[in-house]
């Protein structure tokens, strides 16, 4: 009798490494990351992927982020040791300025005044921050001992806030590393961003950034209501997070996900109202100060409006700049919406979110150095390429140094130590051009989706939640014809079949 044909043994249960898709490794896919990895032994090897240790990507990235945050605190050491108090120009020449210690007394926390309810001495009258940020500041004041000299209390207040902001940093990096399941190492861009470390303790923006990152993580997991609630809290801490609803509505429109869009907007409005309504009713003047201050504030540091004002014999009024800035922002939002509806493939959520927030920064009448924190997580998700990210970061670091040198020049009297007006205008231009460059490469990725590194592995929108893999139902322009003639692939994105049988996005 013929012998029975032997079949290779099969395993009933594949290993975990076979069941789960392996994470994307920048040291293998990004030439800059590969070159940088030579400092620690070179790109990760094939067998390293089979090892399971305590050192997961998320934990490594979080520890790196905390280490960079600590280095940023060390950079503020000259001010902590006296430059905040010995004179105005000293804190600028050391590039270690922070709003936090100055506002401890300047906004009544040292005297136990209640934000929004108690009037402040001087012209400000009330705290000019959104309600949830005011609560963050107040909690830090509760944790600051009231003993010792005022300078000692201010230093402790800064240290308490730094500890709370360090927690926010950990939240941001963990959320970003988990949004794209197969690309956790993209969060290393956030952790190692030099501008992030330099500006983290200038103000309280990291609190809103952490809430926004947590909201985006919830959206990536399909938890629409949780996304809305967290985004509403983020908007109660800073105004910019509400801008993310615009890209979301455009993408949901294109995918026909109206129920999710309405739920997200309703959750955002509900959370914002829960936080703001009590203060709005009980202390309406204090609550409105943030909005009236934003409207009445003149052209200030970092904006192209400042360059125009400094170079014009008859600069525009604040009211005129408000109207023009609003018009430019609306035009930019319209452009992003058209891009989202006409792109050959539906853009990823992070791409449009980055473009809208960048548009707000570029058109606004003021750009404080810490505003870069708004963009860092979005940039890491929208364009996770080290070369482009580092080019942009170099421009932001140049601006960080430029504004302090300019302030040193204006506060050093006849000595004129620092950067003159013309030099500061160059620093502003560098910041604007760096941001525009990153916007340009994101737009290129949208118009040429085959160049998007996130989609090269066959994924659609890993951070898009309910949008990930959803087919288009409303498309404008030539993309509409492509979607009708194409065939939806396993991810729901329309593709055309080539003559050889392979597909191209």
Automatic annotation (TrEMBL):
InterPro entries: GT87, UCP010361
Subcellular location(s) per record: Cell membrane
Coiled coil is among the record's keywords: no
Organism: Streptomyces longispororuber
Keywords annotated in UniProt: Cell membrane, Membrane, Transferase, Transmembrane, Transmembrane helix
Protein's UniProt keywords contain Nucleotide-binding: no
Protein name according to UniProt: Membrane protein
Disordered as annotated region, ranges: 1-28, 477-505
A Pfam family matched in the record: GT87
Annotated GO MF terms: hexosyltransferase activity
Topology in membrane: Multi-pass membrane protein
Family: Belongs to the glycosyltransferase 87 family.
TM regions (residue ranges): 54-74, 126-144, 156-176, 188-219, 225-249, 261-283, 324-343, 389-407, 427-447
GO CC annotations, alphabetized: plasma membrane
């Amino acid at each position: 009798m013929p012998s029975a044909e032997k079949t290779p043994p099969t395993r009933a249960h594949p290993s975990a490494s076979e069941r789960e898709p392996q994470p994307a490794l920048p040291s293998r896919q990004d030439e800059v990351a590969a070159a940088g990895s030579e400092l620690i032994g070179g790109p990760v090897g094939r067998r390293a992927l089979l090892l399971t240790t305590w050192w997961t990507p998320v934990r490594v990235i979080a520890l790196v982020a905390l280490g960079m945050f600590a280095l940023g605190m060390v950079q503020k050491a000259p001010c902590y040791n006296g430059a905040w108090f010995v004179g105005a120009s000293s804190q600028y020449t050391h590039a270690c300025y922070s709003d936090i210690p100055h506002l401890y007394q300047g906004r009544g926390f040292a005297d136990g005044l209640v934000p929004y309810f108690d009037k402040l001495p001087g012209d400000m009258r009330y705290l000019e921050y959104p309600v949830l940020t005011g609560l963050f500041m107040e909690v830090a004041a509760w944790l600051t001992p009231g003993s010792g000299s005022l300078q000692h209390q201010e230093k402790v207040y800064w240290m308490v806030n730094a500890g709370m902001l360090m927690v926010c940093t950990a939240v941001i990096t963990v959320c970003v590393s988990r949004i794209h399941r197969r690309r956790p190492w993209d969060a290393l861009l956030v952790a190692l961003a030099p501008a992030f470390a330099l500006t983290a303790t200038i103000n309280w923006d990291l609190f809103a950034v952490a809430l926004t990152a947590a909201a985006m993580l919830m959206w990536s997991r399909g938890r629409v209501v949780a996304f809305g609630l967290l985004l509403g809290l983020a908007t109660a801490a800073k105004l910019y997070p509400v801008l993310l609803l615009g890209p979301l509505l455009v993408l949901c429109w294109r995918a026909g996900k109206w129920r999710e869009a309405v739920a997200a907007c309703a959750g955002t409005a509900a959370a914002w109202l829960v936080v703001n309504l009590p203060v709005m009713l009980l202390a309406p003047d204090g609550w409105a100060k943030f909005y009236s201050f934003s409207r009445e504030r003149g052209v200030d540091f970092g904006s192209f409006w400042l360059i125009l004002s400094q170079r014009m014999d008859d600069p525009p009024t604040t009211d005129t700049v408000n109207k023009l800035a609003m018009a430019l922002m609306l035009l930019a939002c319209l452009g992003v919406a058209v891009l989202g509806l006409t792109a050959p493939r539906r853009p990823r959520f992070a791409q449009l979110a980055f473009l809208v927030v960048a548009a707000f920064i570029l058109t606004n009448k003021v750009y404080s150095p810490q505003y870069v924190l708004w963009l860092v997580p979005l940039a890491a998700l929208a364009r996770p390429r080290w070369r482009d990210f580092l080019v942009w970061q170099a421009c932001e670091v140049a601006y960080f140094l430029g504004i302090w040198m300019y302030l040193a020049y204006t506060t050093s009297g006849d000595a004129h130590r620092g950067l003159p007006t013309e030099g500061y205008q160059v620093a502003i231009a560098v910041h604007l051009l760096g941001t525009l460059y990153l916007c340009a490469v994101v737009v290129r990725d949208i118009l040429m989706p085959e160049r998007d590194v996130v989609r090269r592995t066959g994924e659609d929108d890993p951070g898009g939640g309910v949008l990930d893999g959803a087919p288009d139902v409303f498309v404008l322009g030539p993309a509409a014809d492509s979607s009708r003639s194409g065939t939806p692939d396993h991810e729901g994105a329309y593709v055309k079949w080539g003559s050889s049988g392979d597909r191209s996005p």
